[in-house]
Structure prediction request, 258 residues.
Amino acid sequence: MPVAERVLLRPVTMRLLLFLLLASCLRSAAAFPRGCYPSEEEGLKTFRCSNARLTEVPRDIPNDTNKLYLDSNRIPFLPRDAFRDLPLLLELDLSHNAIARVESGAFRGLAEHLHSLDLSSNRLVSVSKDAFSNLKAKVNLSDNPWRCDCRLQELIRTVDLAAGSSGGIVCDSSAQEEHVGKAFLQVIADTDFCNVYKKTTDVAMLVTMFGWFAMVISYLVYYVRQNQEDARRHLEYLKSLPSKQRRSEESSTISTVV
Prediction:
């Protein structure tokens, strides 16, 4: 090929390469939800979706992500296996959302590597301990409208609370009014919610058993009295019969009984 032609083709080739590179970048950007972008921080692959107006956990998160920021959005709940395709995730920030429900298995697949989970400033009232089973991460559960009961007590005993976050777990509601507004760890220092629940359950069971026992006794008393009344009437009937017929009736009664 002549030198002149090669010189002319070079700008065209460069433009084509630039166009393909730009198209590839635009395609990658278009794959992410609006307001989300990947980056690298301190050598860790980060994916940020802060203040992106999300109403659910995004599906197209790169599976080599180490730090995921989904804070300050409108996510209402965490479904089962919400993060199962992120086996290398180390930090997960879900703070300042509207999360009111966490399904069992929501964090499945994160147990091995995740070391920080932030669920602060959401709408959590009650969550099963099973939602955090096998999770070794430091968990922040502060600034949620918690209902202080046995379920929360079991949850607190299951998770490893992030340093300095325990004071932010405050009773927003409780069966006992005096607990409202107090830090949960302060309340359970004097109150064992699960023991109270067990005692209540035991009392309810005893009341139920007593009710059944009373019903059985009442039936037996009624049955005995009814038989006594029938026997009394039969005896009166026998007494009212003539002597010979009465003996015959008594013999018949005896043979029937035998």
In short: Residues 193-240 form the longest helix (48 residues). Residues 126 and 152 are 7 Å apart (CA to CA).
